[in-house]
Amino acid sequence: GGRGGVRGVTSSLAAAGGRAAAAGGVVRRLWTGAGPTLARDVPYSALYWLTLEHLRDAVTSQLLARNTRRLLSSDSNNDNNNNSNSDHYQHHLKQSHSHNHQHQHQHEPQLSPREILGVNFFCGMTAGSAVAALTTPLDVVKTRVQIRDMPGDFANRAAEVSGASGKGAG
Protein backbone atom coordinates (compact mmCIF):
# COMPACT_ATOMS: atom_id res chain seq x y z
CA GLY A 1 0.00 0.00 0.00
CA GLY A 2 1.17 3.34 -1.04
CA ARG A 3 -0.89 6.39 -1.43
CA GLY A 4 -4.36 4.92 -1.84
CA GLY A 5 -4.73 5.75 -5.52
CA VAL A 6 -8.25 5.78 -6.92
CA ARG A 7 -9.71 4.43 -3.70
CA GLY A 8 -8.31 7.35 -1.70
CA VAL A 9 -9.63 9.90 -4.16
CA THR A 10 -13.02 8.18 -4.30
CA SER A 11 -13.35 8.02 -0.52
CA SER A 12 -12.27 11.67 -0.21
CA LEU A 13 -14.87 12.71 -2.76
CA ALA A 14 -17.51 10.61 -1.02
CA ALA A 15 -16.61 12.16 2.34
CA ALA A 16 -16.73 15.66 0.83
CA GLY A 17 -20.09 14.88 -0.79
CA GLY A 18 -21.41 13.59 2.53
CA ARG A 19 -20.25 16.73 4.32
CA ALA A 20 -21.88 18.90 1.63
CA ALA A 21 -25.13 16.95 1.96
CA ALA A 22 -24.97 17.26 5.74
CA ALA A 23 -24.26 20.98 5.43
CA GLY A 24 -27.22 21.29 3.06
CA GLY A 25 -29.35 19.60 5.72
CA VAL A 26 -28.09 22.07 8.31
CA VAL A 27 -28.88 25.00 6.04
CA ARG A 28 -32.33 23.57 5.34
CA ARG A 29 -32.92 23.10 9.08
CA LEU A 30 -32.00 26.72 9.70
CA TRP A 31 -34.96 27.72 7.54
CA THR A 32 -37.34 25.11 8.99
CA GLY A 33 -40.29 26.96 10.39
CA ALA A 34 -39.68 30.17 8.45
CA GLY A 35 -43.16 29.98 6.92
CA PRO A 36 -44.96 29.42 10.25
CA THR A 37 -42.78 32.10 11.86
CA LEU A 38 -43.89 34.62 9.24
CA ALA A 39 -47.47 33.37 9.60
CA ARG A 40 -47.20 34.25 13.30
CA ASP A 41 -45.11 37.44 13.18
CA VAL A 42 -46.83 39.27 10.31
CA PRO A 43 -50.35 39.11 11.85
CA TYR A 44 -48.89 39.84 15.30
CA SER A 45 -47.07 42.97 14.09
CA ALA A 46 -50.02 44.21 12.04
CA LEU A 47 -52.51 43.68 14.87
CA TYR A 48 -50.13 45.06 17.49
CA TRP A 49 -49.46 48.35 15.71
CA LEU A 50 -53.10 48.78 14.67
CA THR A 51 -54.28 48.14 18.23
CA LEU A 52 -51.55 50.28 19.77
CA GLU A 53 -52.23 53.31 17.58
CA HIS A 54 -56.01 53.21 18.02
CA LEU A 55 -55.73 52.64 21.76
CA ARG A 56 -53.12 55.39 22.14
CA ASP A 57 -55.33 57.83 20.19
CA ALA A 58 -58.35 56.99 22.36
CA VAL A 59 -56.48 57.26 25.67
CA THR A 60 -54.71 60.46 24.60
CA SER A 61 -58.05 62.01 23.58
CA GLN A 62 -59.53 61.12 26.96
CA LEU A 63 -56.60 62.66 28.83
CA LEU A 64 -56.65 65.81 26.71
CA ALA A 65 -60.40 66.16 27.31
CA ARG A 66 -59.80 65.76 31.04
CA ASN A 67 -57.00 68.34 30.95
CA THR A 68 -59.27 70.74 29.00
CA ARG A 69 -62.03 70.33 31.59
CA ARG A 70 -59.51 71.03 34.35
CA LEU A 71 -58.21 74.09 32.54
CA LEU A 72 -61.72 75.44 31.98
CA SER A 73 -62.66 74.61 35.55
CA SER A 74 -59.66 76.46 36.94
CA ASP A 75 -60.46 79.40 34.64
CA SER A 76 -64.04 79.55 35.88
CA ASN A 77 -62.74 79.52 39.46
CA ASN A 78 -60.42 82.38 38.56
CA ASP A 79 -63.36 84.10 36.86
CA ASN A 80 -65.17 84.24 40.18
CA ASN A 81 -62.14 85.92 41.71
CA ASN A 82 -61.10 88.17 38.86
CA ASN A 83 -63.17 88.77 35.76
CA SER A 84 -60.24 90.23 33.81
CA ASN A 85 -58.41 86.84 33.81
CA SER A 86 -61.33 85.20 32.04
CA ASP A 87 -61.47 88.03 29.51
CA HIS A 88 -57.74 87.64 28.99
CA TYR A 89 -58.16 83.87 28.42
CA GLN A 90 -61.05 84.41 25.99
CA HIS A 91 -58.92 86.95 24.12
CA HIS A 92 -56.12 84.35 23.78
CA LEU A 93 -58.58 81.74 22.54
CA LYS A 94 -59.88 84.12 19.87
CA GLN A 95 -56.32 85.00 18.87
CA SER A 96 -55.35 81.33 18.62
CA HIS A 97 -58.21 80.73 16.19
CA SER A 98 -57.28 83.75 14.07
CA HIS A 99 -53.59 82.74 13.70
CA ASN A 100 -52.35 80.18 11.24
CA HIS A 101 -52.50 76.44 12.00
CA GLN A 102 -48.94 76.31 13.34
CA HIS A 103 -49.73 78.69 16.18
CA GLN A 104 -53.24 77.40 16.74
CA HIS A 105 -52.20 74.54 19.03
CA GLN A 106 -49.95 76.43 21.41
CA HIS A 107 -52.86 77.35 23.76
CA GLU A 108 -54.42 73.89 23.81
CA PRO A 109 -53.80 71.54 26.75
CA GLN A 110 -50.84 69.23 26.28
CA LEU A 111 -49.87 65.97 27.95
CA SER A 112 -47.01 66.10 30.39
CA PRO A 113 -43.98 63.84 29.79
CA ARG A 114 -45.19 61.67 32.68
CA GLU A 115 -48.64 61.32 31.07
CA ILE A 116 -47.06 60.46 27.69
CA LEU A 117 -44.92 57.77 29.35
CA GLY A 118 -47.98 56.36 31.13
CA VAL A 119 -50.05 56.33 27.94
CA ASN A 120 -47.30 54.60 25.96
CA PHE A 121 -46.65 52.02 28.69
CA PHE A 122 -50.33 51.22 29.25
CA CYS A 123 -51.20 51.05 25.55
CA GLY A 124 -48.12 49.00 24.63
CA MET A 125 -48.73 46.53 27.45
CA THR A 126 -52.44 46.21 26.67
CA ALA A 127 -51.97 45.84 22.90
CA GLY A 128 -49.09 43.38 23.31
CA SER A 129 -50.98 41.20 25.79
CA ALA A 130 -54.18 41.08 23.75
CA VAL A 131 -52.45 40.36 20.45
CA ALA A 132 -50.12 37.76 22.01
CA ALA A 133 -53.17 35.92 23.35
CA LEU A 134 -54.70 35.94 19.86
CA THR A 135 -51.57 34.72 18.07
CA THR A 136 -50.44 32.04 20.57
CA PRO A 137 -51.91 29.18 18.48
CA LEU A 138 -49.72 30.32 15.57
CA ASP A 139 -46.70 30.26 17.87
CA VAL A 140 -47.49 26.67 18.88
CA VAL A 141 -47.66 25.63 15.20
CA LYS A 142 -44.34 27.37 14.50
CA THR A 143 -42.62 25.61 17.41
CA ARG A 144 -43.94 22.20 16.43
CA VAL A 145 -42.82 22.65 12.82
CA GLN A 146 -39.37 23.73 13.98
CA ILE A 147 -38.85 20.68 16.22
CA ARG A 148 -40.49 18.21 13.83
CA ASP A 149 -37.26 17.33 12.00
CA MET A 150 -34.93 17.44 15.00
CA PRO A 151 -33.15 14.28 16.17
CA GLY A 152 -35.46 12.24 18.39
CA ASP A 153 -33.65 12.67 21.69
CA PHE A 154 -33.38 16.46 21.27
CA ALA A 155 -36.99 16.85 20.09
CA ASN A 156 -38.28 14.70 22.97
CA ARG A 157 -36.28 16.67 25.53
CA ALA A 158 -37.47 19.99 24.04
CA ALA A 159 -41.06 18.73 24.12
CA GLU A 160 -40.69 17.69 27.78
CA VAL A 161 -39.27 21.05 28.78
CA SER A 162 -41.93 23.03 26.90
CA GLY A 163 -44.79 20.72 27.86
CA ALA A 164 -45.68 20.20 24.17
CA SER A 165 -45.68 16.42 24.52
CA GLY A 166 -48.80 16.52 26.67
CA LYS A 167 -47.00 15.36 29.85
CA GLY A 168 -46.38 17.57 32.82
CA ALA A 169 -42.86 18.66 33.67
CA GLY A 170 -42.89 16.95 37.01
Can you summarize the main beta sheet? none
Structural class category: mainly alpha
Q: Quick check: average pLDDT?
A: 75
Element string (H = helix, E = strand): HHHHHH
Number of helices: 6
Helix content: over 70%
Cα shape: rod-shaped
Q: Low-confidence segments, ≥5 residues, pLDDT <50?
A: 96-104
- Rg over C-alpha atoms, rounded to the nearest angstrom: 32 Å
Number of strands: 0
Q: Gap between N and C termini, in Å?
A: 59 Å
Share of β-strand residues: under 5%
Oligomer: single chain
Description:
With 170 residues, the protein is an all-alpha fold. The protein is built from 6 helices and no strands. Helix 2 runs antiparallel to helix 5.
What's the short story on this structure?
By secondary structure, the protein is an all-alpha fold.
Which features would summarize this protein structure in a list?
170 residues, mainly alpha, 6 helices
Give a topology summary.
Elements: H1 5-30, H2 34-81, H3 83-98, H4 101-104, H5 113-148, H6 152-162
Helix pairs in contact: 2-3, 2-5
